[in-house]
Each structure stands twice: as structure tokens, then as C-alpha cells.
Amino acid sequence: MNAPASFLDLVWLARWPLLYGLGTTIAISALAILGGTVVGTALGLALTFGNRAVRFVARLYTDFVRGTPVLVLVLASYYILGTIGLDLTPFQAGVLALTVFCSSHVGEITRGALQALPRGQGEAAKAIGLTFRQTFRYVLAPQALRLGLPALVNTAAEMVKASTLLSVIGVAELLLRTQEVISRTFQSLEFYLLAGLLYFLVNSAIERLGRFVERRVSLA
């Protein structure tokens, strides 16, 4: 009975560092998902509707980023950009790296979803006088969202897991805070399990949000 009580006491004493780390993880993941979705949507449009030169550049970017390990992107964002005068904080470099990584995946998801739609829908929208922006907003985007939503949810969950790599550049996210607590308490198994539970809860919330959005768009 003493061991569980002792561990709970340690968790209570370490609650603020762990909560700070959890908040940092959520903030980084949310910013990366938001930025990656915006850039990735533009990439998907370029891959689908751009001219040959635009498609080539978008494809080169997408394939290069998808073929690069996330850890390399993280280190490059922090160390290489610093050598050319772009000094980013660890937090900023981490957000940039995950945004770039997320955008490449969202771009491919968007491209696949758009190309899966019948071509006649876009032609019909053009025939009734809709601009490209109106066609995308009211005709193509809602249907593409339905098709790509499961993959987008998986990508969002991957961003949360990828955020653990930011500890190598000193970002005080959940994993680094957990390791700092372990270095003081020497209860590695218990605190790593606790961190795993917190990551699971965050990804579970993302999955539930995805299901909610899926229900809403299915009724639209």
C-alpha cells in the first residue's frame, strides 16, 4: 500500500512541471496541425490544379519532406537555420519542423481526396458560373473533407507523437518534463506509464473530435 501512495505523492509534487509539459505538447501539436493543414491544402490544390511547373515544385517539396525523418527536420530547423542567421527558439523551430512535416502529408491527403471526386462536378460548377474559389469552397472541399478526414485525424495524432522528438533541442514538452521528474524520483516505469497515458488521452480527444466533425460533415 505504501508504494502506490508514495507514487501518487510524487505525482502531486511534480504536477506543475508535468502539466506545463503537457500544455507545451498540446500547443506545439495544435500549431503544427493548423499550419500544416493550411500549407498542405495549398499543396494539394497545387498538385491537383496547378500547371506543370507548379506541380513539379509541389511534388518535389512533398516527396522530399515525406522522405526525410522528422528528427532530421527538427535538427535542421534549429541548427541549420541558425547558421544562416535565422535564430529560432527551440519552440519555434519545433513548430516549424512539425508544420513542414504535417503539410507534406496533408498535401498528399488533399490531392488524393480531390482526385477521387468525379471531374464532372467541377465542370458543372464552372458551367453555372461559379468561380474556382466558390467551386472549391461549396462543391469540392466538403466532399474532399469527407474522404480525407480519417487520414487527417491519423496525421494529427502523428503530430502529437512526433512532438516527443523536440526534447532533443530542449523543448520542455511532456517527454522532457517527464525525464526531468524521473531524474529526481528514480521511478522511471511509473512516470513513463503516466506520460503514455497522457499522450493517449490527447490522441483520444483528437479521435473524438474527428468523429464529431465526420458526423457534422456527413449531414451537410
Q: What's the tally of helices?
A: 9
Helix share bin: over 70%
Could you tell me the radius of gyration in angstroms? 21 Å
β-sheet strand percentage:
under 5%
Low-confidence parts? none
What topology emerges from the helices and strands here?
Layout: H1 2-13, H2 15-49, H3 52-66, H4 70-83, H5 90-116, H6 119-127, H7 132-162, H8 174-185, H9 188-219
Protein model, in words:
The protein is mainly α and 220 residues long. Helices cover 85% and strands 0% of the residues. It has one domain (19-219): MetI-like (MetI-like fold). Helix 2 (15-49) crosses helix 5 (90-116) and helix 6 (119-127) packs antiparallel against helix 7 (132-162). The protein is globular and about 70 Å long. The model has no long low-confidence stretch (mean pLDDT 90).
Question: Which properties best describe this structure?
Answer:
9 helices; mainly alpha; 220 residues
Summarize the structure.
The protein is mainly α and 220 residues long.
